[in-house]
Amino acid sequence: MEDLAERLLAGAIAAGAEAAEVFQSSSLARPVIFEGNRLKQAETSQAEGVALRLWRDGQPGLAVGYGPIDSQTLVQKALAISTLNAPETPNLTAGEAKDFGAVGTAVETQQLVDWGREAIAQIRDRFPDVICEAELSCDLEETRLINSTGLDYRAQDTALSGYISAELTRPDDFLSAGDGRVHRHALDMSAIAGSIIQRLGWANRTVAPVTGQVPVIFTPGAAWLLWDTLRAALNAKRVAEGTSPWSQRQGDRVIAEAISLRQDPTAGPYSCPFDDEGVLTQPLMFVKAGVLENWYGDLAHKTTGNGIRPSLGSYPTPGLINLLVAPGHLDWQSLVAAQQEAVIVDQVLGEGGDITGDLSISLELGYRVTQGEIVGRVKDTMVSGNAYSALNHLIGLGSEAEWSGSTYTPAVVVDGLSVTG
To answer: Strand 131-147 relative to strand 382-386: parallel, antiparallel, unpaired?
Structure first.
């Protein structure tokens, strides 16, 4: 299988394709899973896949295969699919052969098991009745992109991930708190356990929510609800279609001056040297001091090295490598202490808003702030409003940022949202 990409390219050109590319991905995962406070299983899973994209007479075709693959069969499938599509101009990145090397540090399965046991013991030492579930994994992924213009890029990365959820069942009440991290080199499971302990402590008492238009504090784990709307607005494809509310706003102030958003392809566990079209990724400043500066796009939409395949069988489309939100100047304690009455959003049920920015979310885990202190958990509470409006009514940004998925964000305090409960 080592020369599969070369055989697919050669087969496509020999069959009459004027251009072709091959995207190969292989992964090796070693997850360990805990249920009911105990280790349930440790396993290894491996997957290999390849996508062939070609153009014959300008008509594009895409075929995908997994595991052992006959190159001629895959070429014929891609050719057959191409006959169903309208002609277009092939858009491939010219380049050289380059191996970008490996990043990350692998750990043994036993180390994952030890980390999981220690973190669960740390939580249960403070809350003996808690039931914990956890999943820790060491994942190795290799990517290769080769095309008929001479580009041949390779990269390998190793990521360590850890997630714990802790559940407390009481008469007429159920409480669940979860937290997780991803890192290239080591997992601080003690920090995850400490976060869960703190949040279970905040939720130990149930209080009535403050309602109406009050300040809302989004923890780093919940702030994605706001930033995901801006991710959509910064998509160059949506800008070209006119569906982004920021399509005609470049150079304008679009959110509060305290907010700056950027992409750094070398930062954190979501770093990436090249996108899925073979374009080198680059640092990008999207919003600086509230002013819109840039979009992110693929080859078809003002390329910035952000052509991402949502899946192996998908065509590239604009996607962010990561999103970094510049932190503010107040630590968590000061951020909370500054609020007379507020609601903290920590975990939500369902999904956030879309590109319109409209939000209507139920809190799975949220807290009330009164006179600058967290006084307890709120139940049966909803937060609604518009993300763009909220980010134009920013009260403050925390000084301590964390990775939440591929977004590096501090806590965010906004006004202009309504709380009901």
So the answer is: unpaired
